[in-house]
Request: fold
Amino acid sequence: MYTDKVMDHFSNPRNVGDIPDASGEGTVGNPTCGDLMTIYIKVKDDVIEDIKFKTFGCGAAIATSSMVTELAMGKNVDEALKITRNDVADALEGLPPVKMHCSNLAADALQAAIEDYKKKQAEKE
Ligand code: FES
Reply:
């Protein structure tokens, strides 16, 4: 039911952990299942230099968090804001329909982290 890409990112997730002096962080919960995901970003000159995640959730949530960190790494924050749950699912070569909601978490947590970064930047100015 899962693609090899999903299994790979589930068994060997990339960028797990946190960033103590993160430029932004975002936590979202999935009301359907109660799973939780936090994404931390380190930003320099509006480019995501480092990104890590912590996910308490299902295998698909772990695979999508891992994939979203790979998609966002090295991107300008405005470009990274445009990453959708479909981009994440496509990069994983598909998710079973009942698991599509899990990819919401990854895209939403990334957006929340970027918005947190932007808010902090605005406060500095
Ligand atoms: Fe909760 Fe997948 S079942 S995020």
Observations:
- The CA atoms of residues 72 and 79 lie 8 Å apart.
- The mean pLDDT is 95.
- The first helix runs from residue 4 to 11.
